[in-house]
Amino acid sequence: MGRFDKYNVDLKGMRVTSLELEFDLDNAFFADIEGEEFQKGSVKAKVTVDKCRDIFNFSFLLAGTVVVPCDRCLDDLEIEVETENTLRVKLGDSYADEGDIVIIPENEGDLNIAWYLYEFIVLALPMKRVHAPGKCNHEMTGRLKKHSGDAEEAEDGEEMQIDPRWAGLKDLQIEEDN
User: Taking the complete model, does pTM exceed 0.85, yes or no?
Assistant: First the structure.
């Protein structure tokens, strides 16, 4: 049995017009999926499949938390996720993703939704992922300040030397049009 077999939905053999599925997505799921964004979390997924003639309408409701690296200090950051998404699927001759509808081969008849679950969570994450002010790793933020142009003095109290090529930029200000 494969790691993601429990996420297969048998569309070809679906005898009812509506089907409800629930999944607990945990650290093992996220580690197995090997996504680039994160590999830890705890998310509850409720998936509803409604069959309407030859179209299958999937509704995804995902809620929980995932652990991502902080953009500033790289320490783990827990982010709450809550999202609703839809997917339309149709049986056809061969696999195709036509933007608003996914076509899967009728001879297979199964759709594995594991990757969709992961992608919908990724899409719900904010662009900027940082700890609340003052909560970042102080050692890392100190190093960041030391090596960035924003710092006026180093950790040991010495005044930092600004590269003369950039010193002139410090005095420039952008004027706003009124």
Answer: no
